[in-house]
Specification:
A two-stranded antiparallel ribbon has the order 1-2. Helices cover 73% and strands 3% of the residues. It is built from 5 helices and 2 strands; from the N terminus they run ααββααα.
């Protein structure tokens, strides 16, 4: 197709970029699947001792870097989960090289469980 107008040129560029975007999305999905596969293999290859070390290390890290907030409230208002997490984790010194956001993302399940417990306590 011969390009004769600006609109045709722009549309052609958009279609090309969409194709590139689709290709990159497929590549990301393929890599995510590979990462999941390698993670499963690595976890399956751990000895019982290695599994215990990882599990206990996770518990210890969480215990040392979270758990300050005894309430889900700030004054009379209930804090959002996100705000509660930031307030809770910001009270601690995280290990060198660990960003607060990364810590919260990694321990979201544990933090959410604790937050929901605090909410339940507030309702009593």
């Amino acid at each position: 197709m011969e390009i004769e107008t600006c609109e045709q040129y722009v549309l052609m560029q958009l279609f090309e970029q969409q194709e590139e975007n689709d290709r990159l999305c497929r590549e990301l999905q393929r890599r995510d699947e590979r990462i999941d596969e390698l993670t499963r293999q690595a976890e399956a290859a751990r000895s019982p001792l290695q599994k215990a070390i990882v599990d206990e290390g996770r518990k210890a890290l969480y215990g040392n870097c979270a758990g300050y907030m005894l309430s889900a409230k700030n004054g009379d208002e209930i804090m959002t989960f996100e705000d509660w997490c930031l307030e809770d984790v910001s009270r601690y010194s995280l290990p060198k090289g660990v960003a607060m956001r990364s810590f919260i993302d990694e321990f979201e399940d544990e933090l959410r469980e604790e937050y929901l417990q605090r909410l339940a306590e507030e309702e009593r």
